[in-house]
């Protein structure tokens, strides 16, 4: 009762976007079919775990906080939601600093985003709409300079250009 769902040839199903992507990644790694630089998660097992952790954080903490900004029933609830969204973005700012190794993306590379980049990047259009709708600045050069630069690079990447107009 969830979407999206990946149906396997043997009839089993895998739900949730991030889990599906990780499954496909694992199959590519195990089969040896992955081309160099085409994988979405780092080679190092610890770094893969950290990217998976932050991907779950985006789904479980950041998105609900951002969503609550627009759905808040009162001004006080909205103010709390904005505070929660900013707190989550502050943690993601630190994660970008720690995971990127100075590269353009969370993946640590300059050429292509990885899973963690995609997990946060898919929310950029909603984040920018929320900012405009409520007169907010959530990702900007003063509060989250690394995320601000990252969001511009992500939105400019050919894979994201059509959907991430910021």
TrEMBL record:
- What species does this protein belong to? Tripsacum dactyloides
Q: Which Pfam families match?
A: GST_C_2, GST_N_2
Q: Name one GO biological process term.
A: toxin catabolic process
Q: Which reaction does it catalyse?
A: RX + glutathione = an S-substituted glutathione + a halide anion + H(+)
Q: Name one GO molecular function term.
A: glutathione transferase activity
Identify the enzyme class: transferase
Q: Which family does it belong to?
A: Belongs to the GST superfamily.
Q: Where in the cell is it found?
A: Cytoplasm, Cytosol
What are its GO cellular component terms?
cytosol
* Name of the protein in its database record: Glutathione S-transferase
| Entry EC no(s) | 2.5.1.18
